[in-house]
TrEMBL record:
Organism name: Hymenobacter arizonensis (Siccationidurans arizonensis)
Keywords tagged on the record: Membrane, Transmembrane, Transmembrane helix
GO MF terms held by the record: molybdate ion transmembrane transporter activity
Spans traversing the lipid bilayer: 36-66, 87-111, 147-167, 173-192, 295-313, 319-340, 352-381
Keyword Ligase: no
Transmembrane helix keyword on record: yes
The protein, known as: Molybdate transporter of MFS superfamily protein
Lineage: Bacteria, Pseudomonadati, Bacteroidota, Cytophagia, Cytophagales
Length: 390
């Protein structure tokens, strides 16, 4: 008699690895996060210990919770407003709590699921493409040219190394490029006196956001951020997870729930508001990460900076060469842009994705405009109200 074949179900919580590929992947989002955190600390005067320690803790939380490369990023629109308008910490923390409550309500009521059903895949791909355009522009216009001719030479070497080693599991590209950047910093940019003054143990302090600060932060900071968060942090991140880890069946409700949970905790300890992000996951994955280990390692880096180097954070991290960060950022952007390939067989979907990407990258509140216009154009095409059709 033939015995039935027993199949072992996939583990509900996959293992976390800590190997050289996870270490390499940990640097995949550094070019996005580091300049924003430096800018926010400088513009607002918030305590860098709280910002860095909470940022690191949220990375560790996300890596352990998802057990996949689901990193945490500073809220980009939020950060841009803080840097441009020099908004003080109390309003930052109030706005962070406001966006945490908003995302929590969207999650528990199921409204986030309704939004996910409404927004079609070409619009999500367009949002990712718009982010790719913004990251590539930042890399090529600001980071790579930062040091003039030596910077271009350093970036060229890093680019060649990355192309040669991309996808190599034995010699991960990001580790070699980061080692190149560290060597350059030690030889040409290190100031030992500055580094010594930065060393010392510091812990985050307790904050209680006041009602007036929560309301001000909601209007001034949270409202402009929500469209970007819905498009990139929730919908686009869910799509990336489906692309890379289809067996996990990650839902938008789970992503929005952890998004909200982080921002319901961080403001009370001086943390800057954070989100998940499709670009961050792509960056970690592109440089070798396949588990939450990369995100835990990345969080550990910021915990060390916050606990022991926070009082000289701006000076210490600025020794690392910007052209190296630019190359890492450029490859994150290119990987994001290649996701458009699954639109290539459908001209109407391709057009919608390109339209949304250009709107997101080129307009104020572009993610809101792209989300609304792209969705409207998509359904108009489906009904034959505008050209091309299916």
């Amino acid at each position: 008699m033939e015995l039935p074949t027993l199949t072992r179900p996939a583990p509900a919580r996959p293992p976390i690895r800590f190997d050289r590929n996870e270490l390499a992947g940990a640097f995949g989002d550094l070019g996005t996060d580091l300049p924003l955190l430096i800018g926010v600390i400088a513009a607002s005067g918030v305590d860098s210990a709280g910002v860095l320690i909470l940022f690191g803790l949220m990375q560790v939380f996300s890596g352990l919770w998802y057990r996949m490369p689901m990193p945490v990023q500073p809220l980009k629109a939020f950060a841009a407003l803080v840097i441009a308008q020099k908004i003080p910490g109390r309003i930052i923390f109030g706005g962070g709590l406001a966006i945490g409550v908003s995302m929590f309500l969207l999650s528990v009521t199921g409204l986030i699921d309704a939004l996910a059903r409404l927004v079609p895949k070409p619009v999500v791909r367009g949002i990712q493409f718009g982010l790719a355009l913004q990251l590539a522009t930042l890399a090529l216009k600001e980071y790579v040219p930062a040091y003039g001719v030596p910077g271009f030479a350093l970036a060229a070497v890093a680019f060649v190394v990355t192309v040669a080693l991309l996808g190599n599991r034995r010699w991960p590209a990001a580790l070699v490029v980061i080692a190149l950047g560290v060597a350059y910093a030690l030889v040409f940019r290190l100031d030992l006196a500055t580094a010594q003054r930065a060393i010392g143990l510091h812990l985050p302090s307790w904050h209680i956001p006041q009602t007036a600060d929560i309301l001000t932060g909601a209007v001034l900071l949270a409202l402009p951020q929500i469209p970007l968060s819905l498009g990139n942090s929730v919908l686009a991140t869910r799509q990336i997870a489906a692309d890379y880890f289809p067996e996990r069946n990650l839902t938008v409700r789970k992503i929005s729930f952890t998004y909200s949970l982080m921002n319901l905790v961080s403001p009370f300890f001086g943390g800057f508001p954070v989100c998940h992000g499709s670009g961050g996951m792509v960056g970690h994955y592109a440089f070798g990460a396949r588990t939450g280990g990369s995100v835990v390692i990345y969080g550990g880096l910021f915990l060390v900076l916050g606990l022991f180097f926070s009082q000289g954070f701006q000076q210490v991290v600025q020794i690392f060469p910007l052209p190296i960060l630019g190359v890492l950022l450029l490859f994150e952007a290119l990987t994001l842009a290649t996701l458009l390939r699954d639109m290539s067989g459908r001209p109407a979907d391709w057009l919608v994705a390109l339209l949304v990407g250009l709107l997101c990258a080129g307009l104020p509140y572009g993610y809101l405009v792209g989300l609304v216009v792209g969705t409207a154009v998509y359904y108009a095409m489906q009904r034959g109200w505008v050209g091309l059709g299916k």
